[in-house]
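Hey, can you fold this one?
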Amino acid sequence: QVQLVESGGGLVQAGGSLRLSCVASGNFFRINDMGWYRQAPGKQRELVAAITSGGSTNYTDSVKGRFAISRDNAKNTVYLQMNSLKPEDTAVYYCNARALTVLFRDREYWGQGTQVTVSS
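Sure. Predicted structure:
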């Protein structure tokens, strides 16, 4: 099993910045892809940014140039630096990870979510 614990959410004014962190722990062989999703009230959960174990990244168009995803493989941690935040970025942000279990099975895991609120 893998546990994902997020931190760093909060309330910020438009134009401000926040940095989210997500630490993976538990019994696994390796963490592969990691990413951040978000879900705003009344909307579907959407991918915000993702990063492979090799460091390749992709972003949803609405955050390109404002958000940056990174990871520290030694710490099994993924970060999301969010700059120039807009009210439409308000959502619950979820950490996501795919892990290779000790039985070499590919499994997907989710964090509990952290609220990001951007005031206008």
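The chain is about 0% helix and 60% strand. Let me know if you want another pass with a different chain boundary.
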